[in-house]
Amino acid sequence: MIVAEQKPLEEVRRMIAPYQRVLILGCGTCMTVCNAGGEREVSFLHSALKVAQLKSPNGTHTFSEYTVKRQCDPEFLELLVDKVADIDAVLSLGCGIGVQAVAERFPDMPVLPGVNTSFLGMTSEWGVWDERCAACGDCRLDDTGGICPITRCTKGILNGPCAGSKNGKCEANKDMDCAWILIYKRLERLGQLEKMRRYYPPRNFRTIPRPKRLMSKANTDLGENDG
Amino acid sequence: MYLPVSDNIQNNQVNRMKESSPDHSLMPPCQVACPLHMDIREYVDLVAQGKIMEALQVIRNDNPFPSICAYVCNQPCEEACRRRQVDKPVAIRALKRFAVEFGGDRMIQAKAKTTHSERVAIVGSGPAGLAAAYYLRKLGYPATIFEADSEPGGMLRVGIPEYRLPREVLDTEVQRLIQMGVEIRINTRVVSLDLLFDMGYQAIFVAIGAHQSLRMGIEGEDNSGVIDGATFLREVNLGLKPSLGKRVAVVGGGNVAIDAARTALRLRARKVSILYRRSQAEMPADHVEVEQALEEGVKIQFQVAPIRIKGGSKQLSVTCVRMELGEPDASGRSRPVPIKGSEFNEELDTLISAIGQAPQTPGDFHVRVGKDSTIQVDPVTLTTNRLGVFAGGDAVTGPATVVETLATGRLAASRIDDYLQHRYPVTSKEERETLTGDLLPETIEMIRKTERLEPPILPPEARAKGFEPVELVYDWESAINEARRCLRCGMGAEILFQDKCATCLTCLRVCPYHVPYLDDSGTIQIPAEQCQACGICVAECPAKAIVLRNPYDRRHITEELDYVVKSAAQSKSKPLIIGFCCQYGLFGTGTLAGLWRGAKTGIWIVPVLCVAKVEAEHILRAYEMGAEGVFIAGCGEQCTRENTAFWIRQRVEKVRRTLSQIGLEPERLETFNLAATDEDPVKALDKFTEKIGGLHLISVIMQEVKK
Ligand SMILES: Cc1cc2nc3c(=O)[nH]c(=O)nc-3n(C[C@H](O)[C@H](O)[C@H](O)COP(=O)(O)OP(=O)(O)OC[C@H]3O[C@@H](n4cnc5c(N)ncnc54)[C@H](O)[C@@H]3O)c2cc1C
Ligand code: SF4
Ligand code: SF4
Ligand code: SF4
Questions:
Q1: Is A111 in a helix, a strand, or coil?
Q2: pLDDT the model gives residue B574
Q3: Residues in contact with ligand 4 (CB, 6 Å cut-off)
Q4: Lesser CB count within 10 Å: N end or C end of chain A?
Q5: What is the pLDDT averaged over residues B376-398?
Q6: Which of B155, B163, B199, B212 to mutate to test the pocket of ligand 1 (most atoms within 8 A of CB)?
Q7: What are phi and psi of A214, to 5 degrees?
Q8: In this structure, are residues B325 and B278 in contact, taking their beta carbons and an 8 Å threshold?
């Protein structure tokens, strides 16, 4: 899941300053799950903006709120057609993808990001999310016992542990488990310790091509697949 | 700083919430078990808030004579109460007694207008007849009760002893009926129903009870030292002073036997024992009353039955036999079998036989009589074989209970109404879904165990001296604490908007009682029979998909907040401080009242039914509506819920973070513990008010400086 946090109120206020009628738009999927932009956060932000307005007015604003199931799918955005008719800007609490999807669907409408999209992660307990994937495009989790060294090792090294590993903790952050010790233990459990002996050549992140688009559907355009 | 309350939010979801306010609360087992289906959960909750008059109002909605039930009801609701699965059932009847006495039931005037010309005759003034009269008057019919005895009340008058039902309680209810226009003709035994029809009555309700004592069927039963229980109690109750020796034994194991024994004791019998043929486990009498009888000095001999009586008046030699328990009989209880050679003799002065009663219907009534001499009726319409003749109460069911007969009395009134108005009887009004299923062990484990508080009772020595009421009334604190034990079954949370649920699992993670779960299809479920209605998941669900089942609970805080802001706007007192305060316990009537007095200084209270239901948005909204300071005052350790303090802290911290981002001092949000012993909450609040006053001044100065 995509994890994000709401932007500081000050920043949000700066962004909306030029616009009078603002629609605060939530997202009912990842942003709801990570407590950053679901229906509850939408109304909380709405209220916070109003209180801030009372304390130190910057322009006149009227707000409306709405939450769609998922901002990153254009079909869900059709529901917004009426709602954006008489507003001046959308303050999207969707992740970066949502913001762009809304902007694409409503090309004449300024769309402002209300959250900082932070990482791909999982819920560890109520209210706590941990990064688990860097979307690096070259997954090696089979070699590392299902533990991602890129996100979980402070240094992101591919051949660990480094000399800074002490009692299973990381020298850079004593509260954090050393990812490579975790990997070692997991591989030991799986009887695959030989994988620790391998050397993984460094990857040149600058040259890894980003895929830009993924398709799970088969390309059935006439002539391509059938011989 | 004040903003109008509704500021044109074009928010579909809010509107949707407003439109869809169906009541999805389920009928709790206590209400199902009560023959009158009283809204127990509601009035118990009102008692828990100290709202006694409101509680009484709810009680009176469903019960014509709550003061009588408050004394003598056999409380089937407590049998069914789910709190039993946690520790002990809620003391529902005692709470009703508290509400009735402290709520001023005596003062309530009953009114009725006559809107129909058809006259209805009621034969018998027991609870069935009285209830029918009450509801017939409410429906607008002239009603006349014919009573054979010299005083109205049936078994309430001539059966139940005075130490369990003071007669002024019964008299008050009878007076109220007369006030409503019910005509009561005492000393009038009805022998023929035709006569009543001839007198112009168009419908008759036969409620003659079950007064014929069953015979033991043993040798010497007609001895003058032998008296039957119903007759004995009747004579005592009518002040006839039946002759009673010093050594008394009562045969039977029901409530009548216990009442007869305890009455004999109060009439100065020196030695009173009960002979019961089965064991204590099978005894049908209420166990509390059995306990009280034992405390007062009644001896009970179990598995013993008389088989022969010899001798004259005041000198009885009763031969008894011991019993062993065999196979279960038709009643499901083990059949007692005499043990050969176990006979023994008891020397007694008086033997009271109390082994049951049956109705005795005059033959000239010409109503069909069936098993155990009971009158045969259609259970839905209460009609007998005769047109226009209805019957109910003990006469139809055999000896039953006050609350059951009240229910048939009420039913009879509406059936007679149907009949007189030529309406097809509506079988049952639309019933709410009922709550079924037991609490799971993991839920029970998390529910705070609290001792059941019993109302005080007179000490046994004082009791046995006379006919003073045995059971006394709660004081305020005990009543409120006992009422707070109710689990509010069926009032919990539900996912009203499944389409909004993101299956984020927040509810599953935050619920202190482990209620929400993922079903096999990966959908989150909140089972109604487990939910403890704490409202925590409602306040935390990031999709706002969860609501409380009861529309009032759902809207309560928002509406109270709106109301407070409107009233505050009119009063113009500054600074405006809004407090969300626990309404339970003595706070609603005690501490809160103290805070209310502070309203002069601009403190406004939003009463909440558990501060765990206060959401971060509610708090922020208070500022949005112009509050200079906000506080949350809970009941601290007295809270019956788990984790309330933790969740309040979470929400307070969230709002404080936002306040500082806005440039408002986080000290403008504070929490108080109304039940704190170390610091007087009212004083603590005074300090807070002073501080806010200061902050208010600063913000005013800052504004001036800016300008
Ligand atoms: C000793 C005792 C203790 C009890 N304790 C409890 C208790 O604690 N809790 C509880 O819930 N229940 C208790 N009960 C049961 C309860 O009192 C009865 O179930 C209830 O009173 C039955 O009501 P009813 O109106 O059907 O009949 P009744 O109360 O018996 O009233 C019938 C009336 O009809 C009159 N009548 C009869 N024939 C005629 C006629 N031909 N013409 C005119 N009038 C007539 C009778 O005089 C009587 O007044 C007790 C019963 C007894 C006997
Ligand atoms: S706990 Fe309350 S609502 Fe539940 S059965 Fe008992 S009295 Fe009724
Ligand atoms: S907290 Fe709300 S959104 Fe999350 S699983 Fe529960 S009902 Fe669904
Ligand atoms: S209302 Fe409370 S008890 Fe019920 S499911 Fe939600 S958190 Fe659990």
A1: strand
A2: 65
A3: B 492-493, 507, 511, 513, 515-516, 526, 531-537
A4: C
A5: 96
A6: B155
A7: -125, 145
A8: yes
Cβ contacts of B207 within 8 Å, gap of 6 or more: B122, B123, B124, B126, B128, B129, B132, B154, B391, B392, B393, B395, B405, B409, B412
Is B274 within 8 Å of B300 (Cβ atoms)?
yes
- Nearest CB to A32: which of B8, B9, B504? B504
pLDDT tens digits, one per residue of B329-381:
887 888 899 999 999 999 999 999 999 999 999 999 999 999 889 999 999 99
Omega cis (within 30) before A161: yes
Sequence ranges of the domains in chain B: 29-108+439-483, 120-210+376-420, 212-358, 491-548, 552-706
CB contact under 8 A, B13 and A47: no
What burial letters (b/e) apply to B55-66, b meaning 16+ CB within 10 Å?
A: bbbbbbebbbbb
Q: Tell me which chain B residue has its CA closest to the CA of residue A82.
A: B10
Q: Is it the case that residue A82 has pLDDT exceeding 70?
A: yes
**Domains in chain A and their CATH numbers?**
2-118 (3.40.50.2300), 136-196 (no CATH)
User: Is this prediction's pTM over 0.95?
Assistant: no
Confirm or reject: Cβ of B254 under 6 Å from ligand 1.
Answer: no
| A126 to B510: CB separation less than 8 angstroms, yes or no | yes
Interface test with chain A among B524, B537, B662, B707, by most A beta carbons within 10 Å: B662
B350 bridge partner residues: B248
Q: What is the mean pLDDT of residues B309-318?
A: 82
Query: What would the pLDDT profile of B551-562 be if each residue is shown by its tens digit?
Result: 888 888 988 888
Cβ contact, residue pair A47, B624, below 8 Å: yes
A28 alpha carbon, closest ligand: 3
Please tell me if the domain spanning B212-358 has the same topology as the one spanning B552-706.
Answer: no
Could you tell me the pLDDT band of residue B132, with boundaries at 50, 70 and 90?
very high
Residue type, B625: M
- Domain B212-358 in CATH: superfamily? FAD/NAD(P)-binding domain (3.50.50.60)
* A54 to chain B, closest Cα gap in Å: 7
State whether the beta carbon of B189 lies less than 6 angstroms from ligand 1. yes
Fill in the DSSP letter of residue B49.
Answer: T
Q: Which of B208, B263, B290, B403 is the pocket-test mutation for ligand 1 (most atoms within 8 Å of CB)?
A: B208
d(CA B138, CA B179): 12
Identify whether the C-beta of residue B155 lies closer than 8 Å to the C-beta of residue B144: no
**Sequence-separated (6 or more) residues with CB below 8 Å from residue B599:** B571, B573, B605
Helix ranges (H only) for B89-213 are 92-102, 127-138, 155-158, 167-179, 193-198
Residues of A whose CB is below 8 A from B504: 32-33, 38
Domain B120-210+376-420, CATH class in plain words: alpha beta
The CATH fold assigned to B29-108+439-483 is Fumarate Reductase Iron-sulfur Protein; Chain B, domain 2 (1.10.1060)
Judged by CB atoms closer than 8 Å, whether chains meet at A52 and B662 is answered as: yes
Q: Tens digits of per-residue pLDDT, A109-166?
A: 999 999 999 999 999 889 889 999 988 888 889 999 999 999 999 888 889 899 999 9
- In this structure, the residue with its CA closest to atom 8 of ligand 2 is B30
Fold of B491-548: Alpha-Beta Plaits (3.30.70)
B575 preceded by a cis bond (ω within 30 of 0): yes
DSSP conformational letter for B546: E
State whether A28 and B500 contact (CB < 8 Å): yes
Tell me which residue in A33, A44, A125 faces B620 most closely, judged by beta carbons: A44
Query: Where on the phi/psi map is residue B200: left (φ > 0), alpha (ψ -120 to 50), or beta?
Result: left
CATH-assigned architecture of domain B552-706 = 3-Layer(aba) Sandwich (3.40)
Nearest CA in chain B to A57: B662
